[in-house]
Amino acid sequence: MRELSVRRAWDGIRQSAERIDTATPGDRDRAVDALRAFAILGVVLGHWLVTALVADGGTLHTTSPLQHMPWLAPISWAFQTLAVFFLVGGHVATRSYSSARARGTPYVRWLVARLSRLFKPVAAVLVLWTVTATSLLLSGADLDTVRTLVKLALSPLWFLLVFAALTAATPLLTRLNPLWPLAVVLHVDLLRFGLGAPQSLGWVNLAAGWLVPYTLGAAWTRGELDRPRAGWILLIGGTAATAALVIWAHYPASMVGIPGSAISNLNPPTLAAVAFGLAQCGLALLLRDRLRRTMRRPLAWAVVAFVNLSAMTIFLWHQTAMMATTATGLLAGRLPGLHTSPDGLGWVASRLMWLPVFALALTVCWAAFRTYEHARPAGRTGRRRSRVVRAHRPSSGAAALERRHV
Prior knowledge:
This protein has 19 helices and two strands. By secondary structure, it is mostly helical. It has a two-stranded antiparallel sheet with strand order 1-2. Strand 1 (52-56) and strand 2 form a beta hairpin. Helix 2 (30-50) runs antiparallel to helix 5, helix 6 (107-138) packs antiparallel against helix 7 (143-154) and helix 7 packs antiparallel against helix 16 (311-329). The longest helix has 32 residues, at 107-138. It starts with a helix and ends with a helix.
């Protein structure tokens, strides 16, 4: 009986996946969605693996296994995937803007439509954490603990602000050569690391550093990166430059920030982080054809479609899911891999076992807040549309994916 139920459930999943696959327009570049899903999930898993909340008496403070075990730096190479997200974002935004211009859509209307998809889900995060922080402070919680939790919960917002600024500037960036922002990053690092300029100058790279993959995405739209040669140049050149900067210029090997480290490759982006991003972008471009073939499989495409439809919800709530698990776990005491110091392989093994629990907590957050990522129907037309959505949910999901390019 149990095997029959499992088989029926599996058949239902497969049929739904096939309907989504059939409803997806044939001219959609599924590799773009696959790369975006990879980038989002890479960031989520990276944060869950390299961020540790250590319970010390009545307080919680953040640390990282990379601080205690620097030889684990390759983990950051696998999961620091923001450059791929900006590559895809630049490609989709410039393509969308070109289409809007061809249709005669005003710039302001185009921009409002795109930014609303980014920032509507943010309101729920801000409200919940405002209430949570206030409640914790009124209950006498340690101020440093509250600051740590709020900082972790809201840390994804810096990324959205940068992405929104680049999106707003898309009309000015459609023809910008990526070498120009790369040159800015090079000179900023030369000034602050080689000539003693103030370290605050590095924040110029917060825009310039992410402009590099974003404008590469625009070059992709223009067809300048269609040949495999472009991908190989970016991959080999970026890898060689990153290795040289780490070995001879003594940039950190980790591509994410480490608490207590004098230099972070990410906050703000350094030349090493940008060079590493170029290598990632090259690899992403080389994988496009293979991803397109893989995405012809209905189940693989259904998973990618789901992640894309829920991208902002997943991104905004993944830190909250981890912290909710950590806070709940305190009721059972100080648990390995959850509240202990990440100073050995035992912690790594324990943390890996907590990942499914984090995923479950994130699923709860997704179920509670996913509606903020999608516009609610209004009026008679909205009610009619809701009935259509309920009657044809898989097809409407594919249609929603076609409309959304966050």
